Hints:
The chain starts with a strand and ends in a 16-residue tail after the last strand. It has strands at about 5-10, 15-20, 25-30, 35-40, 45-50, 55-60, 80-85, 90-95, 100-105, 110-115, 130-135, 150, 160-165, 180-185, 190-195, 205, 215-225, 230-235, 240-245. The strands form five sheets. The protein has a four-stranded antiparallel β-sheet with strand order 1-2-3-4, with no helix packed on it. The chain is mostly beta strands. The mean pLDDT is about 85. Strand 14 (about 180-185) and strand 15 form a beta hairpin.
Amino acid sequence: RVRTLVGPIPLKSQVAWADSALDQVVAVDVAGDRPTVGRWPIGRRPVYAAPTPSGEQLLVVTRGEEALARGQVDQEPTLWSVDLRSPGSTPVGYVVGSPFDRLQVSADGAIAVAYFSEAGPDDQGFFRNPNELAFIDLTRPPAADNPVLKTVRSFGATPTGVVLSPRMAIAGADDASERVFAFILATNVVTVVDASHPLHNEVSIRLDVAGTGTVVPRELVFAPATATAYLRSDGARDILELALVADPPAGTGPTENDY
Length: 259
């Protein structure tokens, strides 16, 4: 096999990488008196890897493979959650359906969003939906509703990035709990998804008011106490304030949102 290393990625007390030739994550831990090496099996052909904010887990997306020859096994693209604190532990695999090449993880390490970068189709000819995302609840095992695959409205643009908010509660909303919201950035539009309930409908905000030009959102900061985000964009002279406010659903459908 051709060896491609995804990484190395610095973590809390380790350096880790995904090895495509051996279908495994390798980590060197320097916390003790002498370095130790740990290995964890994952799927075929790693595409992208990112640490959790705590630096204790590594998330790896593998492309998998289609069984075309004797000895091969069909593997779907999968997100692997590797617990680097436990050498010899079995990684948890979440089938995500597409070989996403970018990940964002919430500050508490509970939610991950996988999406495609702006790079376009890769050299292996994979046909992809650039507006598709996978929402994974890392606190639960894989299930029919975990991950959730979602295609957001595009308005002719493709996502340039995803930013996850800290946990925020919307005053007066039907759901009073603190939730994580995903802000999906694209040219002339920002889409907001309740990442804690990703089956609910998203909200899209057009930035090119009255066709005034191209606005490219670049940076978000949050005021979680007021469920507010502040957006800086190229092509805009102002900072945009995005306040999430309660908006009771008009119906009783399972995808209705409350903001």
